[in-house]
Amino acid sequence: MTHRIAAVPGVLKVGAVQHLPLSGFNWRTDIDVEKTPLPANAEHPRAIWRSVTGDYFGAMSIPLLRGRMFTAADASDAPKVVVINEAMAKHFWPGRDPVGERIVIGNGPRAELATIIGVAGNVRFASPTTPAGDEIYRPNGQQRLMFMHFVVKAAKDPSSLIPSIREAIRAQDPTVPVAEVQAMGELYAASTSTPRTIALLLLAFAGVGLVLGAVGIY
User: Fold this and answer.
1) Which helix (H) or strand (E) holds 2?
2) Is the CB of residue 122 less than 8 Å from the CB of residue 35?
3) Model confidence over 3-28: pLDDT tens digits?
4) Which end of the chain is less packed: N or C, by CB atoms within 10 Å?
5) 56: exposed, middle or buried (C-beta count within 10 Å: 0-12, 13-18, 19+)?
6) How many CB atoms lie within 10 A of CB 200?
7) CA–CA distance from 19 to each of 3, 32, 160 (Å)?
């Protein structure tokens, strides 16, 4: 689906994520660092995790600090991989490069061992004023979530691209409904009541991107 949207004239980058920044939804999971076993009866540390696909990091202007981003090769039959944020890297590997280290995600029979392949810049998902916590990104090719939000970075007024993007989605699968369309500036503005912050965020994101919520397998 992302390749069809990327082909729409005026689209610079496109990706998808199951929960958007500032949406109020954050899925958390237990984690363990492979080389740092937990003491007996200790609680597992927890981290927010997000499933992404396409050029999500590019569409959201999230920088790669170390390692690499996901590729099409990170599919369901490939070794499990993750990208973590800078906050998590500093928390568990202070002063060290975590790329190549492995973590256990979840616990019990559904626990998965994954290799860290990259470190991305922090994103304030909870609110513009709340520092980023530990976060894990996973390739949707290894997750296959059915509900995703497309994130599009546009070269011009993003609202002018909506009809073409809707048509690209219908061409791929006419049964996939587009639940909503929203500019990133609107999402940021709704997350804060401070006029100055709203003005700055709208200035930063106006004309840069839009969000499409789509339900279905793509």
Assistant:
1) helix 2-6
2) no
3) 888 889 999 999 999 888 877 778 89
4) C
5) buried
6) 14
7) 20, 23, 24
